[in-house]
Amino acid sequence: MIPDHVRNRRSGSNQSRPMRNVRVVVSDAAATIRRLSWRTKCFLLSTLCLSLYIYGSLIMSLTQNHLADDKFLQTDKCPACYGHSLCWAFKDSQIKLKGWSQVRLLDFVNIKNVHFAEHSHLGHTVVLKKLAHDKELDDIDEKLCKDAVRPVGCDVARVLMRTNTGDEIRRLGLLPKHLKGTASMFSCPTYTLIDKVMENYKEKLKPDNPEVMTRDKLQLYVTAITNPEPLMLQTFPSSEGWPFPEYFGACGRFIAVSYEGEPLYNYYNAPWQKRADLAYQIMKIADRLTNSGKDFALYMTDLNYENLVVDGAGKVTLIDLENIIVVDRTAIQRLKKPLWNDLHENRFDECDGKNCLTFSTEDLCSRMDSDLNYYAVCRNLLSKYANDADLGMPHGLLHDMPNFAVDDWDLEHLLNECVHPTVAEGRIKAKERILHALENLRNVEDSRDAAHRIS
Length: 455
Description:
Elements: H1 4-35, H2 38-63, H3 70-73, H4 87-91, E1 95-97, E2 114-119, E3 124-129, H5 134-147, H6 156-159, H7 164-172, H8 176-179, H9 191-199, H10 214-226, H11 229-235, E4 247-251, E5 254-258, E6 262-263, H12 272-290, E7 296-300, E8 308-310, E9 316-318, E10 324-328, H13 329-335, H14 361-366, H15 372-382, E11 387-388, E12 393-394, H16 403-407, H17 411-419, H18 426-441, H19 447-454
Antiparallel strand pairs: 1-2, 2-3, 3-5, 4-5, 6-8, 7-10, 8-9, 11-12
Helix pairs in contact: 9-11, 12-15, 12-18, 15-17, 17-18
């Protein structure tokens, strides 16, 4: 039997061995570091500091409510901003950023400044848009400072009314000349259009007051020169059947709109019946914008797979409204310029086999009717002429058309006529037949069903 003092001594030796091993490892590591060159040591130290910074920033991003931060929202820029109707929801944390939108370190790759958030009151996702790149917003601020004869970097909120345009708006009100050319929406502005915009404007300083104050007009002007999308969403709201997202409000230089689904390009290889249904809805959107009523016509001048989305129920929505031209039909009818009542037919452009859309703003603004929307849909999305090289999607959404669509419904020929008509008013004639064909084809699963429907 081992004596207690011997056993205790051996036990103590065993317990101290791991400590000695740790000291040896630490000593070896320290010696290794001492032997490194100063450049390597600087690199390792920099890497460590960067890692700690990234980790700390990530933790702060995930725990901080950025939508309560005035600097992030840029509310200090107002009235050189989009509005303030939703600031209370941001401040009360009813709307919170979600997913990767919480991480501020990723803002440098999010050049479109589009974020996703959760609306606790509504219980679903909303989209937050800054509506321009940071550089574009800086350029607008610089332009306002120059117009006010102030140095670059001035306080745009204070000098906005002292700009030449701001002073005119203060004295004369918001006139068509102030908005003309600021954005596609105001390619041909009229008093009727301005009245409609102000009647539906939700970002007034005093919402319950029917009067639009000077501050409101200045804010509206800055929104127009930045991106007219908030004005489009308010003037032509989804609640009245327009195929656009719902506008929830603004705070500083952010607006909140409804999330309407995944981009159309995700459905490029969907089953034929699904693509026929989506194509039908897109043609109906073109019809809605063209024949929206006696007062206004809306024309899409930039249509691609990224500007349309599809929700879980299969509904198509147009989400990018920056490049829509609004035409006041009442003004055209009142002025009656030459050819005012003749259909404006857009000329086909081959564009070297790539997507493009050529149009005349002057013709759109002086004619009661145009076939531009149908041309845009057929040319850039549905027909064989559609070739989105950036996404690698040739031959249009209706590629690999089944025989019954080609033979029984003549759809391929009709789409070609819609793009490159061979008769007068060919697009208008073709679009009616295309709508009829697609309405039936989206419910047809095979050629026997198609033949049965025709008979």
